[in-house]
Amino acid sequence: MGVSLVKHTPRAGVIWSGATQVRARPWPQVPGRAFLLISGSHGPTVRLPEPDVLTTWLTTLSSWGYDSVRTSALAPVAANAFAQIGFTVAQELSLLERSHTAHPVIASPPTSTITALRMAPFSRSLGNSALMELLAVDNAAFGVEWTMDQETLREALSATKRVRLFVSRSHGRIDGFVLAGATGNQGFIQRLAVHPDFQRQGIATQLLAAALAWTERRGCSSTVVNTEISNTAALSAYHRFGFAPLDYGLSVLEMQLNQ
């Protein structure tokens, strides 16, 4: 089983190895680093090709001009496969789930600062100026190393069958947002960010309550979220809403190329 290149533009493309599909593009804000997105890698049972095939992926990325590579968040089986060929952990994430039947959504006072957007397509619903504000909030909340760019946002918006963006504004500008998704009876909190200047004012709680109420209305039996294991503030907020850790977490791995 080798590599089949399905689509290729400069320094980006889709690779198939047997039944496994991976996409590669530049990591946000770091053009020399490849962002390797593995289909289904969140699942605890997903299995990747043999090490020699994974190595051919790296050769392909090198030929596209990358000097390093970082993966999307991987479940343990997939993460171990990359660790075997020299990848190291860049970020560890806790994966949490909230049952809507066991934990009814916490009532939150209505607020005029939270706006729900259908985001389909997001450019029409949000507008370019507000889009730049949203990405600036994300950059301030997560830092340059882990921030989203427009392509990352587009990928998040297309990751689930239904999607809703809840935006918080103060003084006419965005100060926080949460991106929620739903596929079948499964809900997802895909991104929650509040600008550091507006944290600890209850904005994250309002946003999270709005997102969970939406996934519950969509008929989701549970909602899942992941967050960095060292993010104690986020973990505390999720626990207050009834989220509990699953029996496995996720890892982002990275490797230098052409060593």
Number of helices: 7
What general outline do the C-alpha atoms trace?
globular
Return the CATH class of the largest domain. Answer: Alpha Beta
What Rg is obtained from the alpha carbons, in whole angstroms?
19 Å
Mean pLDDT: 87
Proper CATH architecture of the largest domain: 3-Layer(aba) Sandwich
Plain-language structure description:
- The protein is an alpha+beta fold.
- It has 2 domains: 4-92 and 249-256, 3-Layer(aba) Sandwich (Aminopeptidase); 104-241, Aminopeptidase (3-Layer(aba) Sandwich).
- It is built from 7 helices and 13 strands.
- The longest helix has 15 residues, at 128-142.
What are the defining features of this structure?
Aminopeptidase; 36% strand; single chain; 259 residues; 13-stranded mixed beta sheet; alpha+beta
Summarize the model shown.
The chain has 259 residues and is α+β, with helices and mostly antiparallel strands.
Q: What does the secondary structure layout of this molecule look like, with pairings?
A:
Blueprint: E1 4-9, E2 12-17, E3 20-27, E4 30-38, H1 51-63, E5 68-71, H2 76-83, E6 88-99, E7 114-117, H3 122-126, H4 128-142, H5 150-157, E8 162-170, E9 173-183, E10 186-194, H6 203-217, E11 222-228, H7 232-240, E12 244-245, E13 250-256
Parallel strand pairs: 4-5, 10-11
Antiparallel strand pairs: 1-2, 2-3, 3-4, 5-13, 6-11, 6-12, 6-13, 7-8, 8-9, 9-10
